[in-house]
Each structure stands twice: as structure tokens, then as C-alpha cells.
Amino acid sequence: MKSYRILPMASLGLFILAFDQYTKYLIVRFMEEGESIPVFGEFLSLTSHRNSGAAWGLFQGQMFFFYFVTVLVLGILVYVYIKEAKDNFLLQTAIVLLMAGAFGNFIDRVLFQEVVDFIDVLIISYDFPIFNVADSALSIGVILMLIEFFFIGKGDKNA
């Protein structure tokens, strides 16, 4: 029987969304903007940061653009979930991660016109842009979708 796994996927999406919003709340509530707390030496810190743009600070302050793109992307993801993800656990998981991540940052943009970022990572000598749980969900979702499309079955529902 083909399945959409609505309950587990909804639970995963809601958990990620709640965890994202809760961690952002904690950062805003207990840290000053710009404050940094080392977690793992110089390689991982909690750094309170606000971003009114996208990754790497692109499109600063373009809220209407972000609202439009997020609603469009969420609509496309729902469509792909319904049309292509039936009985495909990996694709369903990827889409749910993408939706939860997009919606988590969308909430920030609508409520505050900026996104709260706080995970600060140093990779070798590269200071990676500060990010959050929603950004992590988006990144993992993209990776899972690429694995599904390019390595597992290019979306083949019969695999």
C-alpha cells in the first residue's frame, strides 16, 4: 500500500519548527546581540546574530521578496509531496525538512523582519556564516533530496 506517512512527517516537521523557534527565543531572551559563548573551543560558539537577508547576508532588507519566495516554495513543496513523494520515505523526509526550515525562518521574517541566527562554526580557517536550526533543516533537506534524485532512484516511487 502506498503511503504519505502523514503523522510521522507532520510530527517531524512540527518538532523541527518548535525546536527552531524555541532555540531562537532562548538566544533573544538570554543573550545580547553580538554576544558569543564558546561551546567547543574556537570551532563552535553560540553567537547572537540577526540577519535581515538570506545566506551570507544576500538581499538585505528585501522582506517582500522573502515573503513571496517562501510562499511560492512552500506551495511547490506541497505539490511535489503530493505528486511525487507517495511511498517514498526519503523524499517525504527531505520535503518536510525543507518546509519546516522555510517556515521557521518565515515566522521570524514576518514577526521581526529579520532572522535570529546563533550557530557559529569555524571550519578549519573559514568562519562559516552564522546559522540556525531552520537553516540546518533546509541544508539537510536539500542533501537528502539530492541523494534521492541523483543516487537512489531519481524520485522512482517503485524503488
From TrEMBL:
What is this enzyme's EC?
3.4.23.36
- Short name of one Pfam family: Peptidase_A8
Name the pathway.
Answer: Protein modification; lipoprotein biosynthesis (signal peptide cleavage)
Q: Name one GO molecular function term.
A: aspartic-type endopeptidase activity
Q: Which UniProt keywords apply?
A: Aspartyl protease, Cell membrane, Hydrolase, Lipoprotein, Membrane, Protease, Transmembrane, Transmembrane helix
Which top EC class is given?
hydrolase
Q: Which InterPro entries match?
A: Peptidase_A8
Q: Does the keyword Cell membrane apply?
A: yes
The membrane topology term of the UniProt record is: Multi-pass membrane protein
Is Membrane a UniProt keyword of this protein? yes
What biological-process terms (Gene Ontology) are attached?
proteolysis
Q: Where are the transmembrane segments?
A: 64-82, 89-107, 130-152
This protein's superkingdom?
Answer: Bacteria
Query: Its catalytic activity?
Result: Release of signal peptides from bacterial membrane prolipoproteins. Hydrolyzes -Xaa-Yaa-Zaa-|-(S,diacylglyceryl)Cys-, in which Xaa is hydrophobic (preferably Leu), and Yaa (Ala or Ser) and Zaa (Gly or Ala) have small, neutral side chains
> In the UniProt entry, which residues are flagged as the active site?
D117, D135
Tell me its family: Belongs to the peptidase A8 family.
- Record's function text: This protein specifically catalyzes the removal of signal peptides from prolipoproteins.
* Record's protein name: Lipoprotein signal peptidase
